[in-house]
Amino acid sequence: MALNSINTNAGALIALQNLNTTSAELSIVQQRISTGKKVATAKDNGAIWAMAKIQSATSSSLNAVKDSLQRGQSTIDVALAAGDTITDLLGKMKEKALAASDTSLNTASFNALKSDFNSLRDQVAKAASNAKFNGISIADGKTTQLTFLANTDGSGFTVAAKTLTLAGIGLSAAFTFTSAANAKSVIAKVDTAIGTATNKLASLGTSSTGLDTHLTFVGKLQDSLDAGVGNLVDADLAKESAKLQSLQTKQQLGIQALSIANQSSSSILALFR
C-alpha cells in the first residue's frame, strides 16, 4: 500500500526526474540545431571531435599547398608566354636573314635588314630576362629548378628550369650577319635555335600539365576531407527537427504530470474534515 505522506511525494519526484531528463535532451537538440553539429565540442564525443579536428587541420593545410602550386602554374605560364614570344621573334629573324641573303640587294636595303635582325635579337634577350613571376624566373638561366609544395608533409613538386636566353638557345648577344653569304649561314643557326627553344617549351608545357593535374587532385582531396569531417560532426537537421517536436510535446506532458502529482497530496486534507 502506498504511503500517504505530506513530507514525501514519490509521484512528484518521479515526474520531476522525467521532466529534467526531457529538458536535458531538449537542450541538446536545440544546441545541435543552432550549431548544425552533433559534435560541437570535445564534451559531446571526445574521440569523434579529436578525429574531426585532425582532419580539419589537414584540410586547412592543403590551402598552403594549393597556393604554392598555383604560384608554380603562374611562374611556368609566364615562361611559356615568353617562350612563345621568343619563337615568334626567331621566326622573324630567320625571315630577315633569308631576305638579306639575296645578293641582288643594295647596301641600304641590306643594312636595313641587318638592323632589323639585330633589333629582333635584342628583343629575344629582353623577353627571356623579363619572364618573371613574383621575382622568380625559370627562363633567365639564373635558376636550375624550383620546388613547390605537393602535400602537407612538406614533400615537393620539382620543375626543372629551361633557359631561354640567347646563350640558352645557342646564340650570342653579338649574333648577326655581315654579308649575303654570311646571312645564308645564319639561317641554319636560327633554325637550330628555334628547335632548341621549342623543345624547352614542350618540356615546360609537360611540367605545367603535371602541376595542373596535381592541383586538381589536391582540390579533390580537400573536398573529400571536408566531407568526411561533415559526416563525423554535422547534425541531421531533418532528424533533429522531428526530435525537437517530440521532446517539446513530451516536456509539456511532463509539466502537466508534475502538476497532477503535486496536487495528489492535497487529498490528505479530506481525511481531517
Keyword list:
273 residues; mainly alpha; f41 fragment of flagellin, N-terminal domain; 2 domains; two-stranded antiparallel sheet; 2 strands; rod-shaped
If you had to describe this structure to a student in words, what would you say it looks like?
A two-stranded antiparallel ribbon has the order 1-2. The protein has two domains: 10-36 and 235-272; 69-226, f41 fragment of flagellin, N-terminal domain, CATH 1.20.1330.10. The longest helix has 55 residues, at 46-100. Helix 1 (10-35) packs antiparallel against helix 5, helix 2 (46-100) packs antiparallel against helix 3 (107-129) and helix 2 packs antiparallel against helix 4 (180-233). It has helices spanning 10-35, 46-100, 107-129, 180-233, 237-264, and strands at residues 145-149, 156-160. The chain is 68% helix and 4% strand. The mean pLDDT is 89. With 273 residues, the protein is mostly helical.
Short description:
The chain has 273 residues and is mostly helical. It has helices spanning 10-35, 46-100, 107-129, 180-233, 237-264; strands at residues 145-149, 156-160.
Question: Layout of SSEs?
Answer:
Layout: H1 10-35, H2 46-100, H3 107-129, E1 145-149, E2 156-160, H4 180-233, H5 237-264
Antiparallel strand pairs: 1-2
Helix pairs in contact: 1-5, 2-3, 2-4
Oligomeric form: single chain
Tally of individual domains: 2
SSE ordering: HHHEEHH
Ranges where pLDDT stays below 50 over 5 or more residues in a row are none
Major sheet description: 2 strands, antiparallel
The backbone outline, from C-alpha atoms, is: rod-shaped
Strand order of the largest sheet: 1-2
Give helix % range. 55-70%
Class from helix and strand fractions: mainly alpha
The fold-level CATH name of the largest domain is: f41 fragment of flagellin, N-terminal domain
Radius of gyration: 40 Å
